[in-house]
Amino acid sequence: IMGSAFATYARDAALDYSVVEQSAGAFAIDVTACRYAAFYKALGEPELGFLLVCGADYPVAEGIGGDIALERTQTIMQGASHCDFRYRRTNNAG
User: Fold this and answer.
1) Predicted model pTM
2) β-strands 83-89, 15-22: how paired?
3) Count of alpha carbons within 13 Å of 42, Cβ hemisphere only?
4) Domain range for residue 32?
5) Number of domain units in the chain
6) What does the pLDDT average to over 14-28?
7) Taking the CB of the first residue and of the last residue of the chain, which one, N or C, has fewer CB atoms within 10 A?
8) Rounded to an integer, what distance in angstroms lies between the CA atom of residue 91 and that of residue 94?
9) CA gyration radius for the chain?
10) Burial (CB count <10 Å: 0-12, 13-18, 19+), residue 37
């Protein structure tokens, strides 16, 4: 589920990313280039970009399924080299 949902945000070359792990209980990717971050940085407003774009990542994960948890420790929008998305199921039922 997370792979197809993530592909929606990456369409039209919006994101360059590599899959680190994909299993029944986890989906992990590293985003290495983000056109959203480039856009907001060009405007001089990366903080706004973080709030509007990156801030939606956790609610989207919750909306996909109540048993999906997201951990992300860094973002390109905030100056990191990559975004580290780590999704996991919080129960072992699926």
Assistant:
1) 0.86
2) unpaired
3) 6
4) 2-67
5) 1
6) 93
7) C
8) 7
9) 13
10) buried
